[in-house]
Model the fold of this input.
Amino acid sequence: MQPRIPSRLASQPLTNLPLRPITSAPSLAHPLHRQQTRTIRSIQQSINKGNAKTAHISSRFNNHPSLPTLIASTTSAQIRKAPRIPLRSGALATKKGMTALYDSETGKRTPCTVLQMDRVQVVGHKTRERHGYFAVCVGSGWKHPRNVGSAMLGVYSKTMFTDAQGGEVGLPPKRDVSEFRVRDASALVPVGRTIEADWFKVGQFVDAKSENKGKGFAGGMKRWGFGGQPASHGVSLTHRSMGSAGGSQGSGSRVHPGKKMAGNMGGYNHTVQNLKVMLVDETNGLVVVSGMLKSCPGCGVCVLALLTLDRCGFRPEWLHCQAARCYQEAVAGRRPYPSAATGVTTTR
Done:
């Protein structure tokens, strides 16, 4: 429907109508909004520009270098965790079996585990500036290059070190690789250095971490030592069954978390602490420690620096068992102990 002209304007001629003068088309100060396609690069550029504009703005937290460290900061967390981090890197070994050693004076028999160190080398570092913590990456054994991915082959080939002849060569592919956290940058072992059996001393205490034997899916009697059901008198084909898994309304009509049931048994890492180094054979790369490890022969073992005594302030120069025992008694307040800085006997 066409729009109607008001009656008062319909009687007037068109020449008398107040017309706006015709001028050139005005320039748009703000052009019309147009849909823009954003890519990852354009988004990243805009983020960088925003960061550059706000770089001069001070933080809303009171964390100036001249002030004390904040309790809830990352620096304070690293300081609190420092006593629980070893002072020295560990090493990788392979369990070869068990034997026994006899004390020549008392005739005491001590069961021991034989560990062999096979071409253990430092393959890399982890630094606090890049990774947030200090660690030494250690590799052991040898792996055929055709069984290693191209990415890892490139990493090994670019990791150069100086060999015995003085030439720059790359690291060979390693069968097992693990990292050991250390307290500060002074404990980072140079890349390419070979860790021999003399890395450990006789009488030193270490922690050994390994993967125990995998038993597969096991029932409740084998996994948890349940007594089972009666052998007769009304029990039919459920002699080794678990029985009830939970109560009725009194316990919420549900199975509580952590209930001991049938499931996968073994195949997880287990750490045995405070193992004494009984014998070190540098020629064959053997380290004999007291006690047993929950793993099968041929399994890889991470021999860690002592954590239990190190948390109390154990120092690496106190490696013989007599000093460790004296320090334990000193911590308990039963006897004086020598100061590490001066060597003077003090009391605590």
